[in-house]
Amino acid sequence: MSHDDDRPADEAGRQAELLLDRVRFDLASAGFHVAPPQPLTDEHQGGVAVYLDDDRQVTIDWLTHGRLDAAALDMVEADRLEEDVVTRYETVLTTMNTALGEVLHAFGYRTRRPLFGSGLTVQPPPTTP
Fold first, then answer.
1. Quick one: what percent of the chain has pLDDT higher than 70?
2. What's residue 11's pLDDT?
């Protein structure tokens, strides 16, 4: 039985892993704290998460400190969406994901927002023929 059909998937997986490592390196070089891949503990300090999503695409997302996560979640669960902590959480998330996108764009990457959720999907810089 031949495994030739697995070669394109294996190559795509290797390419995704290489892109993942490159994005992590570039963001760390830019001074961002690159957090370990999700899921994180309640004690996490925050920073940028860079991981492969379920479709094996490189995804980045800003993670706030566990304190802000917990406080915002408490207010959302209590249906108190107008509370300052919820606004802070949403503002930080939006602002930092925008900043990450700008930094990656300056480094030559292409990014796009997912249909649902937050963060960005990262594609490699275009190659010149």
1. 86
2. 86
